[in-house]
Specification:
Lipocalin, nine-stranded antiparallel β-sheet, cytoplasm, mainly beta, 11 strands, two-stranded antiparallel ribbon, 60% strand, antioxidant activity, 2 helices, Calycin, 127 residues
């Protein structure tokens, strides 16, 4: 299944506790919690470019499945990581202390990030 497309955040669970666990300030958490981000995924074989626009903040990660890449974490930290594909619809990686799983089913992309015992889930729909 292709990941190509633009997706708008529809809902999220555990945003505040997850961001607190990452060390973000209450002010940044309050600013970010209600912003609807847009994710654009461009897949060309095993190469991916993921652009997430949240308000004025733009995060861009480019990687090739199975190869080490420098990725930006939700806190802005640059981390060397390897993204693996499970099946044809799931991307899995570890960003320092965060395990990230991104799964596409039809027009829905679900991203779950886990830090310790806190999981933060984002559900986005193709636009």
């Amino acid at each position: 299944m292709s990941f190509n497309g633009k997706f708008e955040l529809q809902s999220q669970e555990n945003f505040e506790p997850f961001m607190k666990a990452l060390g973000l300030s209450d002010e940044l958490i309050q600013k970010g919690k209600d912003i609807k981000s847009i994710s654009e995924i461009v897949q060309n074989g095993k190469k991916f470019k993921v652009t997430v626009t949240t308000g004025s903040k733009v995060l861009i990660n480019e990687f090739t499945i199975g190869e080490e890449a420098e990725l930006e974490s939700p806190t802005g930290e640059k981390v060397k990581a390897v993204v693996q594909m499970e099946g044809d619809n799931k991307l899995v990686t570890n960003l320092s202390k965060i395990k990230s799983i991104t799964e596409i089913k039809g027009d829905i992309v679900t991203n779950t990030m886990t830090l310790g015992d806190i999981s933060y889930t984002r559900i986005s729909k193709r636009i």
